Structures are given as structure tokens and as C-alpha cells.
Amino acid sequence: DQQVKQNSPSLSVQEGRISILNCDYTNSMFDYFLWYKKYPAEGPTFLISISSIKDKNEDGRFTVFLNKSAKHLSLHIVPSQPGDSAVYFCAAARTTSGTYKYIFGTGTRLKVLA
Amino acid sequence: DGGITQSPKYLFRKEGQNVTLSCEQNLNHDAMYWYRQDPGQGLRLIYYSQIVNDFQKGDIAEGYSVSREKKESFPLTVTSAQKNPTAFYLCASSPLGVSNYGYTFGSGTRLTVV
After folding, report:
1. Contact with chain A for residue B85, Cβ under 8 A
2. Most exposed residue of A77, A94, A107, B17, measured as fewest CB within 10 angstroms of its CB?
């Protein structure tokens, strides 16, 4: 059972436009969410996070939105740049359970066209 | 510089051989994790450890073994019982408790069965 889903395996966007990556989850107990960026043959690197007590977190060109009622989060990249081309993973965890692990989505490959 | 180091970057294994992937961290993190990445399947948890001399199976532990004799080290052995070992393997670490940044990942090891 996939608790964290990224239904779009790939996305292409023109340079300078907005990229919107989506992530859905099924476990309403998840209370912390992360986005990671991954280049080929490298490990994922942390991009941005959001706690369930917030509905938005912004860091430069990156904004994450959380809609708890819909169990949906999205990552907005504005403006998109060619260097943003990578695979993006969302991850979720229930941090109140003491010891916890992040559950990762399957990833969305973003291609920013120059 | 603190970080997490995986070696080797590329590894070739013959059918029926066991191979060991190295993972070392100098971040003083208590928890360490092994993930496997396959195309279209995201990151799947193999094993994790939250304390020295203790580790737990993840979602796809069959055919793998680990040890945690030192806090800094969490090697993964891919045994001959693993039927489809060709994949990209990622090691990660984190402090116990809530971390705003989730996991720190290594740069990965690509294992190919020849």
C-alpha cells in the first residue's frame, strides 16, 4: 500500500515559468513533510519542509503548500531554471510516534526547457 | 566537513556472490538507513538502525543483511539470496527525534549483476 503517491512520473516546463509538483498521502497521522531533489547517480538533497501546523512554507524560489483536508501537498518552483531539472521526491512521517521513518513517494522527473 | 560517504560508487557482482556496500557518517547521527532505488519505484527501505548493535527490517529486507557495530558505520551486504540486486543503493542518516531536514543521504552505490 503506497502511503505517499506522486502520480505524475514526469513534467516538462519552460524556463522562467512555474513548475508545480504534486504529492498525495493517505495517512492522516502524517505531520511532517519534506521535498528532496535528486540528480542522476547522486543522493537526494533536502529542499524544503513543512509541518502539519502550517499550510505554506517558502524558501526563495521554492514554496510548499499543504492541504490537510485533501491530504495533498505541492511544490511550486518560480521561476523554473534549467538547473532545476532533476527528480523530486516528497516524503512524509508521523513524528509524534517517537521513533519514526519517512515514507517516500515514487518521484517526479522535472525537465526545465531552455 | 561532516557528511555521509558511500563506497564504492560502482560495483559489479557475479551471480551467486555476496557483496558489501560501505556507509560511513561523521555527523554523529544515531539513526542510519539503507534504501534501494529502482526506476518508477521511488525509494524503498531495506534496513534501518537507531542505535548501535540494533537494527530493524524495512519493507524489502529479504536477501540483505546489515550490521551496526559502530555508530559511524552501517554496511549493507547483498547476498546471493537477493534475486534482483541490480539497483542504485542509498544510505542515509539522521538524528533521533524530529529533524527539520529529514535525512542526510550519501551519493549512492550502483550495483550491477554481471
Report:
1. no
2. B17
